[in-house]
Each structure stands twice: as C-alpha cells, then as structure tokens.
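BUG: 3D viewer hangs when loading the predicted structure for this chain

Environment: internal workstation, default settings.
Expected: structure renders.
Actual: progress bar stalls at 90%.

Input used:
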Amino acid sequence: MLIAATGREAETVAQIARKDERIERLEKLVAAFKQAAFGRKSEKTDPDQFDLALEDLDTAVAAIHAEDEADADAVGGNRIAKSRAANRGSLPKHLPLIEEMIEPESLVCACGGDLHCIGEDVSERLDIVPAQFRVIITRRPKYACRACADGVVQAPAPARLIQAGLPTEATVAHVLVSKYADHLPLYRQAQIMSRQGLDLDRSTLADCVGRAAYELRPVFDALMVDLKRSTKLFMDETRAPVLNPGSRKTKTGYFWPLARDDRP
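Structure tokens produced before the viewer hung:
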C-alpha cells in the first residue's frame, strides 16, 4: 500500500533528487577533467580541450551554487545564502568610473522627522559597452579671397593607411588583433559586423589585412635583424594542411616561429 507523502515531504524528496542529479553531473565533469589532466599521454587532449573541460567544470559549479542559493531563499525567505570563497579578480584603476546613487523612496521618518545619512554601502561591478561602429566625416572647406585671384586655400587631406578606403586605422588595427591575437577568422568578423547592419565583405577585410601587412613589413624586417644578432636562437616547426590552388588538394605547410633568449 502506498502512502501519499505530504506536501513538505514531497518538496524535500524533490530537492534531494535535484541535488543527486547535480552531484552526478559534477562527478562526470570531474572525471573528464582528471582524464584530460592525468590520463595517458595518448589519451590526453590538447590544451584548448583541457581549458574547455575546466570551463565546463567551473560553469557547472557556479550553476549549482546558484540553485543552492535559490533553495536557501525559498526555505528561509530573504535569508542571505552562506558566502563562499571565490576569486573574482581585481578591477584595474584606469577604468572609467560611473557612479549611481540609489536613495530611499522617502527621507522622512515614520515619526515625521527627517532622516540623516549615517553611512553607506559601496559595491563595484564590471560593466561593458559593446563595440560600436561609427562614421567619421571629414570636411575640408575651401576658401577664396574676393579682393584678388590668388587661388583657393584648403587644408591638406590627412594621411590614410588605405587611400579612398572605408576603414580607419583603428578599424584596421582591430581587424588585425582579432585575426592574429584572438584567432577570429575574417568571415566571422564579417558576421559580427553584419549583426549591427554593417555589410562589409570578407574580401574587403582581407584587402585591409594585406595592405596593413605591406605597411608593417619594415617593422618585421627590423625585428628579424634584431633577432639574428643573438648567439642563441630557438625555432620550432609546426605542420599544417594548406590548400593547393588549382589541384583541389592539400599540401603540407610549415610554421616556423623564431625566438631569441640571451639569458645565461
């Protein structure tokens, strides 16, 4: 004979079931994390996959903490959940500060007297302003003298990295950093721009990268000369498949990073 559980007992059983499910998820993630970190060499994942496993584990832990805090609020009303140690990082001093003041709805006490400030609680949060595209319009007025015919006076046009091109130098620098430092391909950058209504073709971005590479060539040459002055150079060979134009096949390409270390 089955006895129907009371509402409170059913809620307790449901909470235990949810916690068991969360524990099982964590155990699986921990096992994957240990396999990535301590497994046999042939079974180890690459560093990127290792970082992904760690991110998944941290995400799951944060989700469980959020659920536990929600359960604590449901049981204890507005009771503050037990704080946990967490490395939240530090906010650099050079960031601009936006202060907001939140005042009570009324500064009059229930007895009719005025309320006076006796202190305050201050908290800081990290905010972000999404990248915003803008159009820079350059106007160069033309001036002429009506008393003579000496010609027209006009300020010279500013130098541009890409003559008659749409992107500014800041835009080109952003594309280069996104491609080579953040490993964001040009077609993905074009997709990101399209979400803001900017229809910029991938080939246009590629043209910007190529022209910037030409302008940066003297810097590259100077770095190579400085590297070759060292008596200790280190090189590494990394292979990668490269499309062979016209043959519809791939060939073996090579990356050759060169490093200098003059320490004893």
